[in-house]
Write a structure and sequence with these properties.
Blueprint lengths: L3 H12 L10 H14 L4 H9 L2 H5 L11 H9 L5 H20 L3 H4 L2 H9 L6 H8 L4 H13 L14 H7 L2
Helix pairs in contact: 2-3, 2-10, 3-6, 3-11, 5-6, 6-10
Length: 176
């Protein structure tokens, strides 16, 4: 019997070798992000969120070389029937977390890759003050910020972060 984890692993095997403006594949980016979460001794839910944060890029085709601008929402919606809110909500919010960090931290923009800077424009750019306050009120705000920081750090060419199957136990634990 094929499980959702098997299906997700196959999706990464089939489409994860592609790039969306970064110097590494989508699979390597996902693995590096999950490894950063693991090194931070994050919960299984956050390791799963880190691994799956960009699954929306794999689920729907995009006209942009930088991926699907709605990948955060697409991914969260796809995962919601199978995974907890502790997985899905940080994924749904991770693009807004980038917009937030660029709005409130003077030097954060400089840490973004060229592709992430470009997608920032497509995602709406900097947040207005009322949007900043609304985002801070989100129940999963702190987790979205953690995930976002790992996302930016996980774009290192040549860094070995293992393979997808290394994270199956965390995915299993994070399921509903």
């Amino acid at each position: 019997m094929t499980t959702i984890i098997d299906q997700i692993e196959q999706l990464y095997a089939d489409k994860g070798c592609g790039q969306y403006g970064e110097a590494i594949s989508q699979l390597q980016h996902a693995l590096q992000c999950a490894e950063l979460a693991r090194q931070a001794q994050a919960s299984d839910e956050m390791v799963a969120a880190a691994l799956l944060h960009d699954i929306g890029h794999l689920l729907e085709d995009s006209d942009s070389e930088f991926g699907n601008v709605d990948a955060d929402r697409i991914g969260a919606r796809f995962l919601a029937p199978y995974f907890s809110k502790q997985v899905c909500e940080p994924i749904r919010l991770h693009a807004r977390a980038k917009r937030y960090l660029c709005s409130v931290e003077e030097h954060y923009f400089a840490t973004l890759s060229a592709a992430s800077r470009y997608s920032l424009k497509l995602q709406g750019g900097l947040l207005e003050q009322d949007e900043i306050e609304d985002f801070r009120a989100e129940p999963f705000f702190p987790l979205a910020i953690k995930l976002r920081r790992w996302v930016e750090e996980s774009k290192q060419p040549g860094l070995d972060a293992g393979c997808f199957s290394d994270y199956r136990a965390a995915l299993q634990q994070a399921m509903l």
